[in-house]
Design goal:
This protein is 77% helix and 0% strand. The chain is mostly helical.
Length: 255
């Protein structure tokens, strides 16, 4: 398994999504089925999606079933990503809708890499798919940057007030960090370092923003869903870093 520890974090994100969906018997802000209209038996659909995420996340934890798990969560994340497309077509000028698509798609990218590298063989056919997943995540990093840039004040509001030197400073700093990470990932310049720093920043979001929000107001679905979304994206970022590390090791072994 070349994806290292990142797949475990990624799988935990899927499991958390599933547990939250079961607890609320409802879809959340990021994973939603609104474009389908007034769908009957929504609770049954929510439970089905939750079961796929939980079982897929559990399967990813084990080498022998990681690829099956990657297919399961990749399909469910792809579905949720595609369900944002009708809203994008209806309001193409609203970046928030694009951003929600790319947040889901970043998790699809992580699943692609897990599937591609989830075998002990060193088949050359698996590396192009992993490469596509890696580049897809790089494009998603561009979206993360644009989302914060277009909604800078809202981004600043998420920053805890007690962190010096101020909320807007960190909103701007993390936006620049996303931009630099996207450039590094898409150009390949210092990509491994950038992926690790990007991962550290996303984990920071988890610990400083989303975890405290869940404990401060545990009755709000968005607070728990935000933790699941951030954890899953962190797992995808970790998978990207593991992929780049494996590539570097492969290059060194060839020398």
């Amino acid at each position: 398994m070349r994806t290292g520890f990142g797949r475990h974090v990624f799988g935990c994100g899927a499991i958390l999504f599933g547990v939250i969906t079961l607890a609320w018997r409802s879809f959340n802000t990021w994973q939603q089925i609104q474009p389908l209209g007034n769908v009957p038996h929504r609770e049954i659909l929510a439970c089905l999606a939750a079961a796929i995420e939980i079982l897929g996340g559990l399967a990813i934890q084990f080498t022998g079933t990681a690829r099956i798990g990657a297919i399961a969560v990749g399909c469910i994340y792809s579905t949720f990503a595609l369900l944002w497309v009708p809203r994008i077509l209806a309001q193409p000028g609203v970046w928030d809708i694009w951003a929600n698509f790319f947040e889901q798609f970043s998790q699809v990218a992580g699943a692609m890499i897990v599937y591609a590298l989830g075998t002990r063989s060193d088949s050359l056919r698996r590396w192009p798919l992993a490469r596509i997943g890696y580049l897809s995540f790089g494009i998603c990093a561009v979206s993360f940057m644009l989302e914060q840039l277009f909604y800078l004040s809202a981004t600043a509001a998420f920053v805890p007030r007690w962190i010096p030197p101020g909320q807007m400073f960190w909103a701007v700093a993390t936006t620049i960090a996303f931009a630099l990470a996207a450039i590094a990932l898409l150009t390949g310049r210092s990509a491994l370092l950038a992926s690790r720093l990007l991962l550290a920043m996303i984990v920071g979001f988890q610990l400083l923003v989303w975890v405290p929000r869940a404990f401060a107001d545990p009755h709000q679905l968005i607070n728990w869903a935000g933790n699941a979304e951030n954890l899953s994206i962190a797992g995808a970022a970790w998978i990207v870093a593991d992929y780049l590390s494996a590539q570097r090791s492969k290059s060194i072994n060839r020398v």
